[in-house]
Structure formats: structure tokens, C-alpha cells
Write a structure and sequence with these properties.
heterodimer; A: 180 residues; alpha/beta; Glutaredoxin; 2 domains; six-stranded mixed sheet; 6 helices; B: 218 residues; 11 strands
Chain lengths: 180, 218
């Protein structure tokens, strides 16, 4: 038994070191998480540049409770599907650009969530942003296919047809299956 | 006429009927009701003062339902305008009722009471845990207004005015389009009192999305 203890200790030390090294490697892979301002016109150009990839856009804001609650699911979906070069995940904040504290909170939230995808904030007056994007409210998720066509427009615009996290994943699966 | 042709025409008529009835109560923004829709019946909704409210209690010529949520910065941003609106119609046959339907703790009755005191609410404020009233009216945002005339038909739905205001994190209020210049709800009430249609009948309500409980998994 006494011979076993040092061996066991070594295994534990190696396991911890291994886990630490893996975490470090993951951190190195991560790009810095920044909330980039983007006007609607620039967003249109950016979207056009994504052509060839499936694009999942999560519209959210720090003032939107259900958006904040749903966000970890978007990160999970990214972890599950986002490594595939055929798909791109984007978060688009609709926080008030004149609310510096809210923008700071949004940035901190993205880091906390480890949202290592493209993170933008719409650089427009909030109601104008909604109008230009053609949405009445958030949370909302838009999913474009690889030809750039908006295939899924998931919103809360109808009380009797609310979208779920499951709907988002099903849509991603369907588009991925179609592209292979 | 052949039997097949008759069947086809019947099917076509049925489809047209279904399509027209489905679209009957769908407005420009509201996906459930359109102008002219009746006030849904409701009964014994608990109010923040401990009383209850039913649709049959509403005797005034004009009834305004406004969907609210205590946690929502858009509600907080436009609370001042709502309180002012109620004051403007004091002494006239207008009843404003605030309705909350979200199930989150910071939107339920205890939070509603606190919020009402903080923002000086001067109207009846009820909680509809069933969310039926919101579903029947297609209310998807807070604040979102529904104005009904003496016949209890919907004459206006949407925002209070044309400059949605949000409370910033530091407590200041941002009127996103400057000082409001079009007072949709006030104008709709005045028109309804005069027996006229609202000058603007429907607008998009800017605010927080109402959180309806879903059937099935999240």
C-alpha cells in the first residue's frame, strides 16, 4: 500500500498538470473578445462577406433579461458546431450607444461568457436599429444559409409562436446537413 | 360541373375562408389583433392595492390597457409619460389599467407594488399570471398600449409616442428621437372620446419583449 501512494500522487499531479496545460492551450486559441461598433450599412457589407458560410446571428442586449438568459446556450452551440468552418456565430448587441455603463457591462458579459465569436454592437439609435433590421424586439436569432439567404427568422413577435433554444439548434442542424 | 371540379372549388373556398379568418385580426405589427378587435373579457385579476379587477368593472367611455414590466428599462424610461397621460385625463371618462404578465420574480406583484410607488403610478395595476390577456391581444412588448372606445373596440395599439425612451444604467432617461412630437395614445383617447377614429391606429411598440411561458422545452 505504501508503495502505491507515491505512484498515485504522481498520477494526480500529472492529471492536474495536463488539465492546466489543456486550459492554457484553449486560452491561447481564443482571440480577444471585443464588442465592435458597426452601423447597419457596415453590417450589410459584413454579412455579404460571410457568404459561403452559414451565419447564426444572436440579437441581444444587457437590458433584455431573456437575451441574457439565452446567451449561454448560444455559446454552447458555438462550442458544439462553431469549430466547423462552414458556420459562423455572431452576437449583435442592441444596447443604447449613449449608455457607456451598459456597453461596459456588455463587454464584461461577453468575456465572462467566453463568447469567442464575432461580437458587434449596432451603432445606431436603438429604435432605428430595430427598424432597419426588421425586428420588433429581442431576443431574436437570424440564421442565414451559405448562399446568404435568411432561412430562419426566430423572434418573439407572436405570443403564441415563441421560439426556443431547441428551435435554434434544429435550424443549425438542418442547414449543416443540407450543406454536406 | 364534374365532381372533381366541384370538390376543388369547395376546397378552394374553404382555403380562402381560412386564410381570411386567420388574417382578420392581424395588424401591421401586431400578429394577433387588428383595429376593431373587441376587448377580451377577464375576471378577478389581482391589483397591487389588494383589490381585483374584471372587464365588467370598466364603466368609462374609453379604456386603455398598457402592458408593463417592472424590470424593463423602457418601461422605466416612459413611466413619467404614462403618469402624465393619466393626469391629463383626470375627471374625464377614461380608465387606464396597467397589466403585467411576466413570471420572472422582478415583474410579479411584490415588485410591481414597489415599482408603482417608486414611479408614482396613478392608475390600477393588475397582474395576469395566466398571461391570457396578453396572448389574446398579441401584446409582445412593454410598454405597449391598447386603446378601446365606448363600444370596447380596439382603436389604437402600439407605443405611447414617437420617441421611445429608455432608462440608462445610471438612471438618466434617453429619449431616443428627442422630445416626442406625436402623442399617439393621447390623440387616440381624445379621438375616441369624440367618437372619431384615432389619427394613427397602429405603431410598433418599442420595449422589452414579453416573456410568454412556452409549452415544451426551452
Amino acid at each position: 500500500m505504501s508503495r502505491l501512494i507515491p505512484g498515485l500522487g504522481l498520477i494526480i499531479v500529472l492529471a492536474i498538470a495536463g488539465g492546466f496545460a489543456e486550459q492554457q492551450a484553449l486560452r491561447k486559441q481564443s482571440k480577444p473578445i471585443t464588442l465592435q461598433p458597426i452601423t447597419f450599412a457596415q453590417w450589410q457589407q459584413k454579412l455579404a462577406g460571410y457568404k459561403g458560410q452559414i451565419v447564426v446571428v444572436d440579437f441581444w442586449a444587457t437590458w433584455c433579461g431573456p437575451c441574457v438568459e439565452r446567451f449561454p446556450h448560444m455559446v454552447q452551440l458555438y462550442q458544439k458546431y462553431g469549430r466547423d468552418s462552414e458556420i459562423r456565430f455572431v452576437s449583435m448587441s442592441l444596447d443604447d450607444r449613449s449608455d457607456r455603463l451598459a456597453l461596459q457591462n456588455a463587454q464584461e458579459f461577453l468575456v465572462e461568457q467566453n463568447a469567442i465569436f464575432d461580437n458587434f454592437r449596432m451603432d445606431e439609435i436603438v429604435p432605428d436599429a430595430f427598424q432597419k433590421l426588421g425586428i420588433l424586439g429581442i431576443p431574436a436569432v437570424f440564421i442565414y444559409d451559405s448562399s446568404g439567404k435568411l432561412r430562419y427568422r426566430l423572434t418573439g413577435d407572436n405570443p403564441n409562436k415563441q421560439f426556443t433554444n431547441k428551435d435554434v439548434e434544429s435550424a443549425i442542424k438542418e442547414l449543416l446537413a443540407g450543406s454536406k | 360541373m364534374s365532381r372533381n371540379k366541384t370538390r376543388f372549388l369547395i376546397a378552394l373556398s374553404l382555403a380562402a375562408l381560412l386564410a381570411s379568418s386567420a388574417g382578420l385580426y392581424a395588424g401591421k405589427y401586431n400578429q394577433v389583433v387588428d383595429i376593431g378587435a373587441p376587448l377580451p373579457q377577464f375576471s378577478n385579476l389581482p391589483a397591487i392595492d389588494g383589490s381585483t379587477l374584471s372587464s365588467s368593472d370598466l364603466k368609462e367611455d374609453v379604456v386603455v390597457l398598457v402592458f408593463l414590466a417592472s424590470h424593463c428599462p423602457w418601461v422605466k424610461g416612459m413611466d413619467g409619460d404614462l403618469v402624465k397621460l393619466v393626469d391629463q385625463f383626470k375627471g374625464r371618462s377614461v380608465r387606464v389599467v396597467g397589466v403585467a404578465v411576466n413570471h420572472r420574480e422582478d415583474d410579479r406583484l411584490p415588485a410591481m407594488k414597489q415599482h408603482a410607488v417608486q414611479f408614482g403610478y396613478n392608475f390600477t395595476y393588475v397582474y395576469d399570471e395566466s398571461q391570457d390577456l396578453g396572448r389574446k391581444l398579441g401584446a409582445t412588448h412593454t410598454p405597449e398600449y391598447f386603446v378601446f372606445n365606448k363600444q370596447r373596440k380596439l382603436v389604437y395599439t402600439g407605443a405611447i409616442h414617437n420617441s421611445p425612451a429608455q432608462m440608462r444604467t445610471d438612471g438618466s432617461v434617453n429619449y431616443t428621437r428627442g422630445i416626442p412630437t406625436e402623442l399617439y395614445v393621447k390623440d387616440a383617447i381624445e379621438a375616441a372620446l369624440a367618437g372619431k377614429p384615432a389619427p394613427v391606429a397602429e405603431t410598433a411598440a418599442q420595449g422589452c419583449t414579453v416573456e410568454y411561458e412556452k409549452t415544451g422545452s426551452k
